[in-house]
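To whoever is on call:

I kicked off a structure prediction for a single chain this morning and the downstream step that reads the tokens threw a length-mismatch warning. I double-checked the sequence; it's 301 residues and nothing unusual in it as far as I can see. Pasting both halves so you can look.
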Amino acid sequence: MRTVWVLICLVSLAGIVSAAPPPPPPPNPEIAYVQTGTKQKIVVMNSDGSNKTTPFTGVNGEVLSEPALSPGAQWVAFTSPSRGLVVVDRITKVATVLMTPAQCGASAPRLPNDPGFCWNPRFSPSGSRVAVLDGGLSAPRVWSIPSSGGTPVVLYSGSQGTPFFDVAWDSDESQIAIVELVDAAPNRIIVVNLATGTPRTIVDGLDLFSIDWARNGLDRIIFDALIAGGPDRNIYTVDFSDTGADPPVLVTAGQHPSYSPDNGSIVYRRNGNQARIDKRNLMTGVVTENLATDLSPDWKR
């Protein structure tokens, strides 16, 4: 009788052990975003929303720009008006200033009340450089600086009164795409050949904001634009071969899209009073909702 009772207990214990939840997935940081609050934070997470960690926390009232995650996911680049362009090591949490606020506004004539600052950094596909915008209305420019630090150089300069909103690299780092404001609105997307400095217009006639360039040599850009009568935005795509065609709507009521490394999915912020980060599988159309509740997601290259 005692033997039977022991066996029953062992079976029961085995059932309890087997019913335990599986271990969490290993850290595999793929997406960076800004967590809002009194002290804004830079957060990284797996593509399924797990393993959220905070490499950097700002001071009270500090506004942190859209972050960019390096291809190897070791570094996160971001900007703030008081710090300039910063990269922070995801593991050690050591932050390094690549460009000071003075450098961001240096050697350019400034319009009144336009101090100039850096914003919207983007790692190149190799991770060796960071592109960042500067200049406001006065002297819009796209800078490039080695991600390990060094001397910044201007990749492209615009005209006074036509500020840049966003920038993206192509796969071989020979071109950049820029959202440029033209005559107050609407905006346009230009693609600049970095060898010649020659721009060409890819999309115009829409109130554009954020862009990302597809990976692996694909000439396709994803972007958001205001819905007519907005304030909400839709997400669109455009292939360079589709000259003259209206860009199709990919996601309704979404903004700030970013491609996955294989172009199979996108991550984006859902429109609404509560900022929500969703992921969409472009092959199946399946949407994974609420990976995080915050702003400006960026998927590593």
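Update from on-call: the warning came from a stale cache, not from the record. Cleared it. Sanity check on the structure: The longest strand covers residues 198-206.
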